[in-house]
Amino acid sequence: MNPRHLTLHQLRIFLAVAQHGSFARAAEALHLAPPTLSLQVKQLADTVGQPLVEQIGRRIYLTAAGQALAQAAADVDERLRRLAEDVAALRGIEKGSVRLAILTTVKYVVPKLLGSFAAAHPGIEVAMVVGNRGALLQRLAANQDDLYILGQPPDDWDVVCEPFADNPLVLVAPPGHPLARERAIDPRRLAGEPFILREPGSGTRATMQRFFDALGVPLRARLEVGSNEAIKQTVAGGLGLAVLSAHTVGAELALGELVQLDVQGFPLLRQWHIVYPRGKRLSPAAAAFKDWLFAHRDPAVAPAAHPVPAAARRARGRSAAPASTARSGATPPPPPHPPA
Ligand code: PGA
């Protein structure tokens, strides 16, 4: 194959196909007509001299050549983005863009800070995606964003990881629940209670599961719901108990729509971290945004504000890892592990 015959346009199209796993969704994302997109991918395959994709059912799978091409396209895209940032940096931090990916629970805290950042730096665009732990780890492995706010990333990932805020998980019940008035409830008494669980891939779910598994308490899952908001409504409606980030339930607890149960071992203490691949060179805009987040976070939630008791550290599980992992090397993180 002669790489000179590849065009940037084709590489961008192929990257979108690889990221979306579908011609139709890639065409939609790029505002292209599906036949135009298919034609470009076909021409690209002719240039490469090998098939790039296989279609099984409605899904598109990349062949080995397709995967190699998608990686090259991602590298080129990242390099051009850095070029744009370098050019912007020559004019100072006031121009540029930041791609931020945050946990579903973080959206109760961080978006508020975006407004003041945007007002102070009108030339910087911030694009934000919200997802659960599993989704964010996949984005991190694919180097899709500048900064991530998530729990503790897997220990063997080569990333910079700075503790940003405490994320206590609390056990909530509908008001009037028989356990609502009790103190220091033994968690084993919750064995028969129906629970509303987050979806697989959620760090909140994995943490509560670890806590109850360690005690040998089987959880009775009544319903699986992929949104903190919907879980709150379901619990308030009397369908069961749930473990949620305290950041998500402040208003409902204050209004008495939910009550927090005083269960031994709770709150489960987790932390949010600001994370990015160790080899990544943060653009001036991204570095300015990171500094802004640290400078403007609510001091009450900053990790250093609370000494963590030993029992809570144990419950925190993997989140109890050192404050900042300092590992050598300059490679992006390895492919995603099963979310923990
Ligand atoms: P999640 O986030 O439950 O939305 O994945 C919480 C966490 O990982 O701490």
TrEMBL record:
HTH lysR-type domain boundaries: 6-63
GO MF term list: DNA-binding transcription factor activity; transcription cis-regulatory region binding
Protein name (database record): HTH-type transcriptional activator CmpR
Region ranges (Disordered): 305-340
Lineage of producing organism: Bacteria, Pseudomonadati, Pseudomonadota, Betaproteobacteria, Burkholderiales
Similarity remark: Belongs to the LysR transcriptional regulatory family.
Family annotation (InterPro entries): LysR_HTH_N (IPR000847), LysR_subst-bd (IPR005119), WH-like_DNA-bd_sf (IPR036388), WH_DNA-bd_sf (IPR036390)
SUPFAM superfamilies: Periplasmic binding protein-like II, Winged helix' DNA-binding domain
KW Nucleotide-binding (keyword) present: no
Keyword annotations from UniProtKB, A to Z: DNA-binding, Transcription, Transcription regulation
Compositional bias annotation for Low complexity: 305-330
Any Pfam family: LysR_substrate
Record carries keyword Endoplasmic reticulum: no
Record field: compositional bias (Pro residues): 331-340
Top-level taxonomic group: Bacteria
